[in-house]
Amino acid sequence: MVFDLDLIKKIYGSMPSKVDAARKLVGKPLTLAEKILYSHLYQAPAHAYERGAAYVDFAPDRVAMQDATAQMALLQFMTCGREKVAVPSTVHCDHLIQAKTGAAADLATAKDVNKEVYDFLASISNKYGIGFWKPGAGIIHQVVLENYAFPGGMMIGTDSHTPNAGGLGMVAIGVGGADAVDVMAGLPWELKMPKLIGVKLTGKMSGWTSAKDIILKVAGILTVKGGTGAIVEYFGEGADSLSATGKGTICNMGAEIGATCSLFAYDEKMAAYLKATGREEVAALADGIRDYLRPDKEVYSDPKKYYDQVIEIDLNTLEPYVNGPFTPDLAWPISEFAKAVKEHNWPEVLEVALIGSCTNSSYEDISRSASLAQQAIDKKLKTKAEFTITPGSEQVRYTIEKDGFLKTFDSIGGVVLANACGPCIGQWARHIDDPNRKNSIITSFNRNFAKRNDGLASTHAFVASPEIVTAFAIAGHLSFNPLKDKLKNEKGEEVMLDEPKGVELPPKGFSVDDAGYQAPAKDGKNVQVVVKSDSQRLQLLEPFAAWEGTDLKGLKLLIKAKGKCTTDHISMAGPWLKFRGHLDNISNNMLIGAVNFFNDKTDSVKNELTGEYGAVPATARAYKAASVGTVVVGDENYGEGSSREHAAMEPRHLGVRAIVVRSFARIHETNLKKQGMLALTFANKEDYDKVQEDDSIDILGLTSFAPGKPLTMVLNHKNGSKDEITLNHTYNEQQIGWFKAGGALNVIRAEFAK
Ligand code: F3S
């Protein structure tokens, strides 16, 4: 047993009284999100908190970190003077394994290439009391769902798809490493009280439709920004009919609409999953406080009164969806997809179909996809596209091998990749004849921004359920609708695929030989953590400088980013993942994917000191060497996507003083604040247009920096004219303290030194 039953007993022991007290305070029946949030406050509340406005201190139960973000989180943690983590925490080695030929060879290569980093993570976990999941053990969110998630709990994780654990009724939120450091150090974790979006699911799915289609449809309705600052709570008969892992898929992809997290209420399906994964005691404990793990009954009868927004989806009429390309909110019902492919001139030939990942590799997903693969065998069909399968964990992989599904996939040419992120995060050595050729791929993953999967701007990536992806792999072209189109088999006969069939949980149970877990030492005091001084992969951190106490004057514009600027544009993944533990080296990817407004090019900005154009990181280094601070200007939802704090640390390291945008994605805005950076928004969004390439920029008002009080940006244009612009911010007192100290870590360090 890797989970801490005593901890769950303690949490459940105090939850009813905390929830009852909160109901009195709020003065009305409570949603599930409110029950969990109010029972996880750092201190007992004196009043109700206003949603979308009040900053609240929470005490999460757990922390989970994946290997790419854990490096920086733990490098930060080791500087803050603690002997052990204050809450149960885990590290999962999943992001650094590159998919090339297949599971065994790719895993062996990764262990070799990343040895230094894995050794660092294993030893630092051992030292500070952190559970360590070795490379090959599985993808963080699947391993968490199988082992640690529990109804009514609260966790944070250094990965944006942490909300996957909402499938087991947990408030699970993606954060940057600096937030993880707070919680591991036993400090309160601050979050603006989220707004609540209720999604009522009526009816029941059947046939080709699966849980993935619910979130693909929701993404189309709410768009990539629609969930910002909100918890999405699903309810209704349709919600209770979904398997726990199906619920997990929906919560996982809630990250694609910017939601703080997503949540389902405790029900029979969750109990069944807990029991199937060896946690009968947790299910029994949850049954004991069942009413506290579901919204109050009144919420169901009049949801509009309790949620800030309510959406209703009828599962009886829900179609399978295909979303994309380039953004997960471009949602096409399957009946309209073929037409869209033609109209937009997207490459119709499908080159690669990929199933699995943290989002969609449950036993149910795999069994439904395998039923299609079996049909392909029976009906004499072969896959026309390359087809890969990424199991979410060794437990899933072992079980689906034992039950014969991997053999079925193998028979139609499927390649099983390592239990790791691989192509989902650009860790994919794709074989393609011409990288500039427009091409299409389809995945059952969650994110499909340009270059995300294979680093190629020419790749059109679509997202769908594993069963739709499998059907497309067999058809080999995107104008196929498996619900009504026929395919020609090897004998030249026309055949149709029948509806996929699957089972939620393995009839003969899950099993695994070696799950890949290393428990930490009871007393890690003498465990040595090694970081070589000449390492190219790891670098010990130096504290950032404190604010100089004055307004910032004479700053230069580093880049005015045009359009979408996600964390992938700011700090690209793929080949750069290997530098996630080395701030100076990884800073060489800073903003290289962002489009310069003034020349429409990526990684080409003007150095005002020389008048020459150069790469963004090199230009930033030149300004830094000349002690000239810089400003980055951005568009809407700047920093959407992942929780990686490198996207905030790199500009901080390379001398950027302020990021000024039309709007921010939540996690990135917080990450910037944590690193002592100014994260500011145009009060008037049109002022974005006033910023010119050769401006000298002043940021005024910092000596009286206060919550709710705007700052001023003066754009001193080259022709002698000026524009004075009002900048809004969302800093509270504590965050202003971080800015002044030069970063949140400097504040923590000073507190422990007292
Ligand atoms: Fe990994 Fe992709 Fe999930 S990167 S954690 S498999 S979103």
Commentary on this structure:
This protein is of the alpha/beta class and 754 residues long. It has three domains: 5-314, Aconitase, domain 3; 321-495, Aconitase, domain 3; 552-753, Alpha-Beta Barrel (Aconitase, domain 4). The strands form eight sheets. It has a seven-stranded mixed beta barrel. Strands 6-5-2-3-4-21 form a six-stranded mixed β-sheet, sandwiched between helices. Helix 8 packs parallel to helix 10 (244-253), helix 15 (363-378) runs parallel beside helix 18 and helix 24 packs across helix 25 (744-753). Residues 94, 139-141, 159, 161, 357-358, 421, 424-425, 445-446 line the site of FE3-S4 cluster (F3S).
CATH topology of the largest domain: Aconitase, domain 3
The CATH architecture of the largest domain can be given as: 2-Layer Sandwich
* Structural class label: alpha/beta
Radius of gyration: 25 Å
Supply the CATH class of the largest domain: Alpha Beta
- Principal-axis shape equals globular
Termini distance? 38 Å
Bound compounds, each kind once, are: FE3-S4 cluster
Unreliable segments (pLDDT under 50, ≥5 consecutive)? none
Helical region count? 25
With strands numbered from the N-terminus, the spatial order across the biggest sheet is 22-25-26-27-30-29-28
What percent of the residues sit in helical stretches (DSSP H or I)?
Answer: 25-40%
Strand-residue proportion: 15-25%
Mean pLDDT across the residues is 96
